[in-house]
Amino acid sequence: MSGLIVTLLRVASSLAIASFVTAASTQWSWAEVPEPSGLWTGPMRGQTPTTLTGATVIDLAGLEALMPKDPVLLDVGPADQKPEDFPKDRLWLPTHRSIPGAVWMPGAGAAAFEATKEEAFFRRVNELTQGDSSKPIVTFCRPECWGSWNAGKRLVMKGFTGVYWFPGGISSWQEAHDTVEVKPEKDWQPPPAK
Fold first, then answer.
1. Is the per-residue pLDDT at 30 higher than 80?
2. Do 106 and 122 touch, CB atoms closer than 8 A?
3. Tally of CB atoms within 10 A around 45
4. What are 104's strand-pairing partners?
5. What is the largest CA-CA distance in the chain?
6. d(CA 105, CA 130)
7. Domain of 6?
8. Which CATH number belongs to the domain containing residue 60 in this structure?
9. Is 148 within 8 Å of 76 (Cβ atoms)?
10. Does residue 149 sit within a domain?
11. Helix (H, G, I), strand (E, B) or coil at 25
12. Looking at the predicted structure, is the pLDDT value of residue 80 above 80?
């Protein structure tokens, strides 16, 4: 009889632990991030939505499938900032690596642009698409980057219909492919930090 009691206690204990783990994982899981109605104005790093209305959200396989269509690859990742304690007698030579063929416009996913900066952004995008608002344009950065979401949203709001958002960004690309060093677009400077 005592063996039966021990077995029942073990089963009850296992069920209690399983219930606690299930409740805890439900309580502590990431909540779905809703899309803002316009551009995101909060911190540029953090959990992003899984959707971007008006655009197609793609993973690495989706980007690989899109590559034969020669999409515009728009990297909006920020430029590295020189650390405040960087030795004054050393040369600061940061590099930015991206998907081969990408156009790097650091900070182009900022929520607020001056009118001239927004004009420069759309002028360059129009050049890259040759005025075809349906040409595939892929916006990306790094994972959990609101900047790439904002860049895609800005394009959708302007009437571009071939917008793709690649939330895995450069990190996802590097899992299967090489990256190359890219320079910022000529005459493009990121918007001033606010």
1. no
2. no
3. 14
4. 75, 184
5. 84
6. 18
7. 1-30
8. 3.40.250.10
9. yes
10. yes
11. helix
12. no
